[in-house]
Design a protein that fits this description.
174 residues, mainly alpha
């Protein structure tokens, strides 16, 4: 039986491992297939008869690992919140509260309800994706709620009153 010889690969020339065509204009994927063959391969793999089996396997894996998935999600969201707070200063702009459990993002010129409605629960991820846009600041939940309900923060009014009384005492002593 004659010995089969392999064709030598010319540098810069590729061939598809499935259809054996050389230098396909569409390009190649990382598995060595040309893009048209890779599309057929991927479709057959994920939408063929084993699709239901894979879907059931992932569903079952999710049920078995529910706690693990929840812990990973909480940790990811917490780290993203910390990163967001750090990007906007990390402390309450009004009362200087620094514990991240008490801090939230405030829209300086209002419009937080509309922004939250459009972004859902992914506000921190969207802010990160947008490169930390201007017009936002860090406030503690107390200051943020007071601004929303009353239009002012009690810390600001106390500071303003203290400043006014100090000015009055200065004026009286002069």
């Amino acid at each position: 039986m004659p010995k089969r010889t392999r064709k030598k690969q010319i540098p810069g020339q590729h061939h598809c491992h499935r259809c054996k065509r050389a230098n396909v204009p569409e390009g190649y994927s990382s598995n060595g297939y040309c893009l048209p063959c890779n599309r057929k391969y991927s479709y057959a793999r994920y939408h063929g008869p084993q699709h239901e089996r894979l879907k059931n396997w992932w569903r079952e894996w999710g049920r078995k690992n529910r706690k693990r998935i929840a812990v990973r999600g909480r940790r990811t969201r917490w780290l993203l919140k910390l990163e967001t707070l750090k990007a906007y200063g990390g402390i309450c702009a009004c009362c200087q509260e620094a514990r991240p459990e008490f801090l939230a993002i405030d829209h300086v010129n209002g419009g937080g309800t509309r922004h939250r409605a459009s972004s859902g629960s992914a506000l921190y991820a969207i802010l990160k994706r947008q490169g930390w846009p201007k017009g936002l600041r860090v406030l503690c939940h107390n200051c943020n709620s007071a601004l929303g309900f009353f239009g002012y923060c009690p810390h600001q009014t106390t500071r303003d009153l203290a400043l006014q009384s100090a000015l009055q005492t200065l004026q009286m002593s002069s």
